[in-house]
Amino acid sequence: MLAIFGRNRKYYARARALARNGNGRETEVEASFPAGDPCPDFLCVGAQKGGTSWLYRQLEAHSDFWMPPIKELHYLDQLNRTKRFHAPRCRDKCDRFFLEGMNGLSGRSYLDLESYGRLFQHKAARVSGDISPAYSTLNDEIIERVVNHFPKMKVIFLARDPERAWSQLSMGVRLGMISRFDATDPEEVVCNLLNPGVLVRSHPSKTIARWKRYVRPENFRVYFFDDLKEKPVELRRSILQFLGGDPDKPSGELKPHKNNDVGREKLRLSARVRDRMAQFFEKELKACVAELGGCAKSWPERYGFSLLLFFWDLLDDSIDLFFWFDWIA
Predict the structure, then answer these.
(1) Alpha carbon distance 291, 286 (integer Å)
(2) 112 burial level (CB within 10 Å; 0-12, 13-18, 19+)
(3) Does residue 297 register a pLDDT over 80?
(4) Could you report the per-residue pLDDT of 24-66, keeping only the tens digit for each?
(5) Terminal Cα-to-Cα distance of the chain (whole angstroms)
(6) What are phi and psi of 323, to 5 degrees?
(7) Which residues are within 8 A (CB) of 171 and not within 5 positions of it... i.e. 6 or more apart?
(8) Which residues lie below 8 Å from residue 11, measured CB to CB, with a gap of 6+?
């Protein structure tokens, strides 16, 4: 897997030289690092195109955090075997040891959570975590294993309304991962929304429900892309406080409202296609109102659905469920 980080092969070679002596044992160089707990303090499990890159940059530049040299580790879903479009950060010994450790893990055919946890020991007394939006697709078995192995780990999810899927399609086309299509044809758009890689990431209500089954309530938080657009200072403060950082400390020169993804080329979203997408995600919008609350309560109205009717549908479903249980009894 060294090819994944082709432009940084020299760092892997140096990391191996630093890390091991002739007998294959760890040298004092690695032992000289201040060791932190061998575990991630948190996971950010999505959503893709929900503000996770913004969050990584805010934490990476903050003195209370040590973030991995790769934003998306993809270990829990792909054992780090994924194509990367950018070379990883490799500015010091901690980064080199981390990258070498990830390279070693990717050669194993099984999920080694103990070794995965040790990757984060270079954080010392700082906070560290794994921001990989693809973890929103993990199944119950993997989630349960991860949470049981790291019971104190916090989990956050950045939720976004159905336009998240449109941003994913735009990114896929831009990177050549999705074939170009007629973005003005609603039915062709729906065909692309049915792409498994898009569809599985487009139901935040299900993702959140899966993770909440295993993560303690005090260790789980949902945040909203809406707040990143409208209240980035307050959003940053809330996330940093939850993760254990000091929100009054700056993230270097980076301001909370700075989002590098804004302005990137996107497919033009017409009103006709947007309406069709709203119909496609109508049930999910309803589910998000119930499961997420918060900003999600405003999503149906944003797409032309009556919020009153949505709440009536939710009440009607609750009444039906009550009578079903009563009938079973």
Answers:
(1) 9
(2) middle
(3) yes
(4) 344 333 445 567 899 999 999 999 999 999 999 999 999 999 9
(5) 57
(6) -70, -30
(7) 49, 177, 264
(8) 5, 90, 95, 96, 99
**Residues 182-207: tens digit of each pLDDT:** 999 999 999 999 999 999 999 999 99
Residue 100's CB: how many other CB atoms inside 10 A? Answer: 21
Cα–Cα distance for residue pair 7/35, rounded to 1 Å: 28
Q: How far apart are CA 175 and CA 70, in angstroms?
A: 18
- The CA radius of gyration of the chain, in Å to the nearest whole number, is 22
Q: Measuring CA to CA, which residue among 155, 175, 232, 168 is closest to residue 203?
A: 168
Query: Distance (Å, rounded) from C-alpha 79 to C-alpha 16?
Result: 20
Kind of pairing between the strands at 42-44 and 129-131:
parallel
| Cβ(192)–Cβ(181) below 8 Å | yes
| Cis bond before residue 35 (omega within 30° of 0) | no
Give the separation between CA 89 and CA 78, rounded to whole angstroms.
Answer: 20
Q: CA-based angle 231:232:238, to the nearest 5?
A: 95
